[in-house]
TrEMBL record:
Its main location: nucleus. Residues 192-308 form the SET domain. One of its GO terms (biological process) is methylation. This is [histone H3]-lysine(4) N-methyltransferase. Residues 316-332 form the Post-SET domain. Keywords: Chromatin regulator, Metal-binding, Methyltransferase, Nucleus, Phosphoprotein, Repeat, S-adenosyl-L-methionine, Transcription, Transcription regulation, Transferase, Zinc, Zinc-finger. It is found in: Nucleus. Its EC number is 2.1.1.364.
């Protein structure tokens, strides 16, 4: 990690971003610049692909973001000077900014990636997550994940269990609104409810971005609804592709597959002392799986619910690392 960061930015391998900047060929046009970070002999290699209509793509490379972008900036400055266009001052432009690595939304995600705690020179903009200081436990089931049992086709698939009494209670303001109205409000506001960050339980987790009152719809578990037979085939395909498998069983016949088309809700981890529940809400004759708060959740608190895996024998037990006071020590 030492070579893949400086005091201002972290350079994750595989990073891609389209940037719009002035053309290297025309003073009054803009072009697309596909910025990417690769690895070469243990060091970062920065690439910029110049995409401009009517011209072949040009690929520029450099050892630093500034080095590769200077090739663009020099050409742009020459074109604009020769045409009498407003002069730019490329010496003051930072390569990290031009790559988009310092954009707030991008920085927040990068600072949540596994391994960032090893970036000793980097100055965290959003504050080092205190949970990063915890030793991370290995949980083979991951988050809402299906794991194959040895020699059997049955999977540890997240199973839906419903709690409707909370939403319908008349002692809370949410109870005076229909579920469909709550659902529409949640769909409009869910991005302000949660954020993705490193979890002390397993990998990444979903956190409350604000204080959330009890009985509030927080986020929808989305994905592709498929039959159990199809889920069995897809699981084998995902495993062959070395993918993590994210599935949520609705009933004996249908499963929501969030592996490819899922949303952030798939990262919610299991806990024996959860602060959320799951329920089915019918909206316009379609069943939706909703994660709702079972108690008041404070900002910065990790969201979690009970996966309700079927009980298994000792040979197939999955350790639980939720850390709850009432932790059952096993997820199944």
């Amino acid at each position: 990690m030492d070579a893949f960061h400086n005091h201002a930015a972290i350079f994750p391998v595989g990073y891609h971003a389209y940037r719009i900047y002035w053309s290297m060929r025309h003073s009054n046009r803009r072009s697309k610049y596909l910025c990417s970070v690769e690895e070469e002999q243990g060091r970062p290699l920065f690439k910029v692909r110049v995409v401009e209509k009517g011209y072949d793509d040009v690929i520029l490379v450099g050892a630093t973001p500034k080095a590769v972008w200077d090739q663009v900036l020099d050409s742009v400055a020459q074109i604009r000077t020769s045409s009498g266009t407003l002069k730019l001052f490329p010496i003051y432009l930072k390569g990290e900014d031009l790559f988009g690595l310092s954009t707030s939304a991008v920085t927040r995600i990068i600072e949540s990636l596994p391994g960032v705690e090893a970036c000793e020179r980097y100055t965290f903009r959003f504050g080092r997550n205190p949970l990063m200081e915890w030793p991370l436990a290995f949980n083979p089931s991951g988050s809402a994940r299906s794991e194959a049992k040895a020699g059997q086709a049955k999977r540890y698939t997240l199973t839906l269990y419903t709690h409707t009494t909370h939403i319908n209670t008349h002692t809370h303001s949410a109870g005076r609104h229909s579920k469909s109205a709550q659902y529409r409000r949640m769909k409009a506001e869910w991005k302000s409810n949660v954020y993705l960050a490193r979890s002390r339980i397993q990998g990444l987790g979903l956190y409350a971005a604000r204080d959330i009152e009890k009985c509030t719809m927080v986020i929808e578990y989305i994905g592709t609804i498929i039959r159990s037979e199809v889920a069995n085939r897809k699981e084998r395909l995902y495993e062959a592709q070395n993918r993590g498998v994210y599935m949520f069983r609705i009933d004996n016949d249908f499963v929501i597959d969030a592996t490819i088309t899922g949303g952030p809700a798939r990262y919610i981890n299991h806990s024996c002392g959860p602060n959320c529940i799951t329920e089915v809400v019918s909206v316009e004759r379609e069943n939706k799986i909703i994660i709702s708060s079972s108690r008041r959740i404070q900002r910065g608190e990790e969201l979690c619910y009970d996966y309700k895996f079927d009980l298994e024998d000792d040979q197939h037990k999955i350790p639980c690392h939720c850390g709850a006071v009432n932790c059952r020590k096993w997820m199944n």
